[in-house]
User: Fold this.
Amino acid sequence: MLRQRILTALAIVVPVFLLIGFGPTWLFALFVLLAVGLGAWEWARLGGLSGGAPRAAFVGAIVLLAGALLLLRAHGGWSALHVLVLALAVLWWFAVFLGLVWYRPGFASGSWGRFLLRAAGFLTLVPAGLALVWLHDADPRLVIYLILLVAAADTGAFFTGRLFGRTKLAPAISPGKTREGVLGALGAVFVVAAVASRVFGLPPMDALLFALLSILVALVSVAGDLQESVLKREAGAKDSGALLPGHGGVLDRVDSLTAAAPVFLAGLLWAPLLNVGA
Assistant:
């Protein structure tokens, strides 16, 4: 199993990083749309949409919406509409934080719960795709940094949780996560942010702000992970899919990133840092 995970990871990571680092933004945008579509297909299944037609309609609506936003960028640049989508995403993840506190298993048994889980697919996948392409358009290194940030948070949480984890973070959602693990994640992210600040050539005060933003993004990435855990728990599924041997589905690999990307971009725009403005 471990060997399969490593082989799959290498088969994905190498070409994706080459695309991010050396590919044009339009090609990266097509890749992001593909990932959004695959994630939407898994989301539709977990959200209880049975049958090919309803799932295809769900996927088509998400991909068309994300694609339309990216086409607007291609013809007119980043606009107030794109900023509005980011603002809605930030509000969404704030609402997710509150919802996770009040979550109880069986939430999706009613029609309102199922509707909200399906709507969450739009609110999660569309802004994430938009944010990743925007970041790449500004500086491909920002996309690489964001991926490394999320990976550092996951790694720090895993090892700290295994060594020191005692207090459950969200036992009703993901019993394996601990508060100690979150603290380990934040520590790892701070180190990565400090190194990246030097790479980006940030002055001391901007570097501090960048590190604080990175820590906030890491916290939000935990919410993305837990949101997908809720989706799988309500569907009675262990993984979001089986597309990636040893890893599960696309959502299993990008759940944290879908939350981190729009918040990271919004923070860079608000600060402002690293010239990512519209």
Summary: The mean pLDDT is 89.
